[in-house]
Structure formats: C-alpha cells, structure tokens
Amino acid sequence: xxxxxxxxxxxxxxxxxxxxxxxxxxxxxxxxxxxxxxxxxxxxxxxxxxxxxxxxxxxxxxxxxxxxxxxxxxxxxxxxxxxxxxxxxxxxxxxxxxxxxxxxxxxxxxxxxxxxxxxxxxxxxxxxxxxxxxx
Length: 135
Description:
The chain has a domain of 92 residues: Helix Hairpins (Orthogonal Bundle). The chain is mainly alpha-helical. The chain contains three helices and two strands, in the order H-H-E-E-H. It has a two-stranded antiparallel ribbon. The longest helix has 44 residues. Pfam families: Prefoldin_2.
C-alpha cells in the first residue's frame, strides 16, 4: 500500500514561505539542540549502565565477610581493601552517579523546553512546510 497522497491547495501554498536569516538561525539552533539531546541521552544511558554495574558489585560485596580483603580498582591499579571499606567506597560512587543521572535528566529537560519554544515559533511561521519531529 502506498503512502503517497496529493497535497491540497492550502498545503501547496504553505511551501512558498520565505526563510529569513532569523528563521534560518532558529532552524540551526533547533538542530543543535536536537544533536545535544541525542548526546545527553547517550550519556544518560552510559551513566545508568555504570550505576547498574556498581549496584551489582555492591550486592556481591554484601555477600563477602567484612574483614575479608577484596581488590578494589583505583584508576588502572587494584588495591586490597576490606569488604567493608569497598562497600563504603561503592556507596559513595553510587551517590555520585545518582547525582550525575539527575544532572543529565535536568539538562535534557532544559534542552527539550528550549526545543518546544522553537518548534512553536517555526511551526507558526512555516506550518506543514517544515518537519521538526524525530523519526
């Protein structure tokens, strides 16, 4: 089945809207925000996955004896610490990742708000002649 349809007369004339320099700047700004959203969403997923790995490590450490020495990675080296110390370090790292997740969510919300404002302005002027939706 074909998705091709004929444009009605009103839709045909909407394509003849002149693009001013200011309009082009708004379109470019929207495009930059769109790319930034993609980057932030990728960043969010990476931090979320790192948090999940850290939660798995915390569960494994809970099973270890508190006085038992475990290897804890610091940079590129491993250091022997007690399981209790490792749990404490993992909890602190987990808190940092939670804050990072909240920060990225906040940034995404801000950028989405700016994009919505630009969408309203651009759709008001260009109507069906412009497509700002993600596919």
